[in-house]
Design brief:
Layout: E1 2-10, H1 31-47, E2 56-65, E3 68-72, H2 77-87, E4 92-94, H3 97-112, E5 132-134, H4 135-139, H5 150-158, H6 170-173, H7 177-201
Parallel strand pairs: 1-4, 4-5
Antiparallel strand pairs: 1-2, 2-3
């Protein structure tokens, strides 16, 4: 078993392809006030691009297990996505991978034309299969209303707080070698924590 995590950022090349935002004006009639609302809506839309594989991109990938531990953070997104599929191993665990990490990786692979190994193809049906273990879904008993954050569960179960950066700083951090190293280390720390939770859950919930 290996744990996987990805980090993502907005893709500035896609800003011009964003659909027009649909802000809510309420009772506001004043054109100047509406212009401010429009600008705020556009700013929020751009800030959220990193969570959408159409308008965002992978900026870091980490994989950790007993036999393997590595993270990468470069400008070469295509190379990172290919690396992820090549090094997942026969089974992986994630935290929220069904809803985010796996769909994002597959869609970016499709857009970038990155070949996906045949053995991975069975993951494409909603990303649910014996090869992928989403610990967040298992801990929540597959109930969307009971989902907890990795930080909350790791702190309660393991007594460990998840190290984190402000994701809004990632685009700026990507511009320097030190910044990219920090993102890579942060991503790897997430996988290490995910793997520790997997070890804690085996025999009880898994």
């Amino acid at each position: 078993m290996r744990a996987l995590d990805i980090e993502t950022i907005p893709n500035p090349e896609m800003i011009d392809r964003l659909p027009e935002p649909k802000p809510k004006y309420g009772n506001t009639k004043d054109p100047a006030k509406r212009a401010v609302i429009d600008a705020d809506a556009k700013t929020a839309q751009i800030a959220g691009m990193g969570l959408n594989p159409l308008y965002g991109k992978v900026c870091a990938v980490a994989i950790h297990g007993e036999d393997y531990s590595q993270s990468i953070c470069t400008e070469d997104e295509l190379g990172m996505v290919a690396w992820a599929f090549e090094n997942m191993g026969s089974r992986i665990c994630t935290w929220n991978g069904n809803s985010f990490d796996m769909p994002f990786l597959y869609k970016r692979a499709m857009i970038l034309k990155v070949p996906v190994p045949c053995a991975m193809g069975k993951w494409t049906k909603r990303y649910y299969c014996d090869m992928h273990c989403d610990l967040m879904e298992i801990f929540a008993s597959w109930n969307p209303g009971s989902r907890e954050s990795l930080d909350a569960v790791a702190h309660a179960v393991l007594g460990i707080k998840k190290p984190d950066y402000d994701y809004k700083l990632f685009p700026e951090m990507m511009m320097t070698a030190d910044g990219r190293a920090n993102i890579a280390n942060n991503c790897l720390a997430h996988t290490e924590l995910t793997y520790k939770l997997y070890e804690a859950m085996v025999g009880y919930l898994i």
